[in-house]
Amino acid sequence: MYPTLIPEFGLSVIKVLTLSAFAFIGAILWTPLLTHYLYKYKMWRKEVRQKAVDGYGTPIFAKLHAEKEVGTPRMGGLLIWITVLGTALMVYGSTLLFPEDPLLKKLNFLSRNQTWLPLATLLAASLVGLLDDLLQIYKKGGYAAGGLRFSRRLLTVALIGFVGALWFYFRLDQTTIHVPFVGDFEIGLLYIPLFVIAMLGVFSGGVVDGLDGLSGGVFAIIFGAFGIIAFFNNQMDLAAMAGVIMGSLLAFLWFNIPPARFYMGESGILGLTTVVTVFAFMTDSVFVLPLITLILVLESASVIIQLISKKLRKGKKVFLVAPLHHHFEALGWPSYKVTMRFWIISAVAAMLGVIIRLSG
């Protein structure tokens, strides 16, 4: 009955907002179960890290982490990707139980050409991240503080990116990229390495997960931006999935605002950074990806600059400590000030990215 009363545009808005709210409420409701498990089994690092991502072992870095890393669980990313997967399966299962219900058909956002790949990417990368978190918690593995070696993480992300690129190229017949205000360019097989490189680039920005509330807010803004682009591209299932991820992230943020109940960890970061790349290519927004993910770019660049400086300038540093958010902490900024200012920068950059993409 409702399709005759509400225009299609309105139904699409309702779809995205309803699913976003459903994911937020669902995540809020099952968080006590997750936190009970994480605290009961002490799912946190057992020792404070002494080395920053930039490779320096400094008193500054150890001091910044002394009160946070030990006693606060990792694996908070479980809240995000399990909620997204659970929402998708619940809505899809409801359509099987009530196949004639038009509302449930409209709410279902599982579709082969829009959401299969991002959902599979999120699940695969998050499971690898979960393994990495467990290795870090129990101080296993070859990384400095436990966990998968960085080279193996890169290889895993590259492999996920390669599989995703093949799906785009062969199954979705994608061989062009859009340059705002210029047009579409045919790049053929170059589409595959471009996809992999973009995914590795976004993944490198995962170092943003270092302050209470920082990563949750930044990623919520990023997926909100891609949700808007997908909506105006008439990719309603993809827009709905972006909304579900954003709703889950807002629930995560509710519990991650200082003092954090848990940290996102690799179980969240790996999945989110890889699926951001998929969203960028699905919405043909590769050229605004660095702008929408500006904070990730700046965080990654700070580590790269620091490492290059260490190599070429005989150990001299550009930043007091990298990644960038720790540099500002070391300057004396309270962590909440760093977090909120990074949120503002991320929101403004994301808005500009959306405007450029939709205008061009």
TrEMBL record:
Alphabetized UniProt keyword annotations: Membrane, Transferase, Transmembrane, Transmembrane helix
Organism lineage string: Bacteria, Candidatus Terryibacteriota
Gene Ontology, cellular component aspect: plasma membrane
Domain of life: Bacteria
Subcellular localization(s) per the UniProt record: Membrane
UniProt membrane topology term: Multi-pass membrane protein
Annotated GO MF terms: phospho-N-acetylmuramoyl-pentapeptide-transferase activity
Primary location group: membrane
CDD domains named among the record's database cross-references: GT_MraY (cd06852)
Keyword Membrane: yes
GO BP term, example: cell wall macromolecule biosynthetic process
Transmembrane segments: 12-39, 78-98, 118-138, 150-170, 190-207, 214-232, 238-255, 262-281, 287-308, 342-359
Protein name: Uncharacterized protein
Biological source species: Candidatus Terrybacteria bacterium RIFCSPLOWO2_01_FULL_40_23
